[in-house]
Amino acid sequence: MRPSCATIDLDALRANYLLAKRLAGGRALAVVKADAYGHGAIACAKALEPLADGFAVAFLEEAVTLRTAGITRPIVLLEGVFDPAELETAAELDLWPVVHHETQLRMLELAPRRPRRIWVKINTGMNRVGFAPHEAPAVWRRLQAVPNLDPPVWMTHFACADDPTSSMTLEQIRRFHGGIATLPGETSLANSAALLAWPQARGDWARPGILLYGGNPLVVGADPDMANALRPVMTLTSKIFATRWLAPGETLGYGATFVAERPTRVGLVAIGYADGYPRHAPTGTPVAVGGRRTRLIGRVSMDMLTVDLSPLPEDLGQGAIVELWGEHIPVDEVARAAGTISYELLCHVKRVHRIHRGTEFTP
Fold first, then answer.
1. Among all residues, which ones are annotated catalytic?
2. From 234's CA, which of 28, 151, 322, 358 has a CA 20 to 30 Å away?
3. Could you tell me the pLDDT band of residue 229, with boundaries at 50, 70 and 90?
4. Is residue 119 part of a domain?
5. Are the beta carbons of 50 and 229 closer than 8 angstroms?
6. pLDDT band for position 222 (50/70/90)?
7. Could you list the residue range(s) of the whole structural domain that residue 288 is in?
8. CB proximity list for 174: less than 8 A, separation 6 or greater
9. pTM, entire model
């Protein structure tokens, strides 16, 4: 069997959720959309269900997968529903759809059957979806006329919460509370970045996502103690399947972008961009071989990549375990080197064997 593997530490996932909940000071939805950011939505939801106040997914099919697997906690549909049939299914499965715009609101008003609870998105500056703050009272009046509907959860989403130096988040919080101040219902503002950097964004429901999986969403000003408290959930590994030496002046890989300056021992690793490792990760991107840090050299290929074994002991060669990210190599460090974010790296992992481990986990 090809040795590439993603090991998912469900104990770490639970620890990160409890940290998020402590930061929230209230209830917290575990965001498990996009197959739990590449970690396996069913396994992650089952591991979290004894702890979580609820879950959030992007759309109906993701929620159906969880309900079919036996998940009974509340599930929020962050994109809402796309047609009346989906709204009826949401009612049958006791899902909580988000209402973003007039079409969804009208669908709710006309439905013969609807969920008992909804969330309403307020656009405070992200400018993708959501009602303007001044429209919130009119939305509430219309909701009051809908039978058998509980007061909503009013929510918003931040554009710059990952930057603790930006003034935009405080302005968005001000706009949000200005729009819904006199309206009944609960509130949800804080995503992962807001939980870490913006205590002013606390509400009734938090929505931690990347934080659950051990990624630090803050681009600057990260609290090192908090960053250290987050535990990596996914460890992506493979093995060295062959080695070779390059003489000074010899090149390596597509484009001949790496030129050896000295005798260089190269390890060939059975993983590549078709498995989700970033193709544009440059020479120098950190990896760990046998638990010891070294670097990627040359271009990443579809099925393999190459690492520098020169600084490592001779016994770290063919058959040695290579960690691409996880315990020794933070996924955020790899993302920065590749010019992207940890969300993308984790979501793109595929074509590798996935193993879930944890003291309380049963498949």
1. 33, 254
2. 28
3. confident
4. yes
5. no
6. low
7. 234-357
8. none
9. 0.95
